[in-house]
Amino acid sequence: MKNKGESISQSQYAEIIGNLLHLMSFSIPDFAYAVSRLSRYTQCPSQDHWDALARLMRYLRGIMDYAIKYSGFPAVLEGYSDANWISDSDETKSTSGYVFTLGGGVVTWRSTRQTIIARSTMELEFVALEMAGSEAEWLKNFLANIRAPDVTG
Hints:
The protein is of the alpha+beta class. The protein has helices at 10-26, 32-39, 47-62, 121-145; strands spanning 77-84, 95-102, 105-113.
C-alpha cells in the first residue's frame, strides 16, 4: 500500500531497488513481480516496504547457489503469460507478465503494469497475451536469423 506518512531512507531504498532491477533484468526472473511491486514505492517508502525488501533480500541470499541450466533438448521455444486482477484499492491497473524458455532454461521474462484499465479478467488476459505474442514473434525472428532451424517452429 502507498505510504501516507514520512518516507524512510528514500535514497537508500531507491539504490537497492535499482540494483535489484538490474539483477532481475539479467539473471533472476523469479522475483520480477516482487521487485516490480516494490519499485512503485521508491519515492516514499514506508517501514512496510523496507520489511518487504528485507524479505526479498533474505530470499536472494537463500538462492545464491541456484543457476539456470540449459539442457538443449528439446530445443523448443515455450512461452507462458499471466495477468492479475487489480489486487488492492491503491491500484488502478492490472499487472501482466510472461516468461519464455528454450532448452529448459529461461531466456526472457517481463512483469509490468498494463497500459489500460481492463473492465474484465478476460480483457486483461488478452492484453497479457498480446504482450507475450509480440515477444514470441520477436524471439522467433531472432532465432531464425541466428540459423537455429530446430527452434523456429
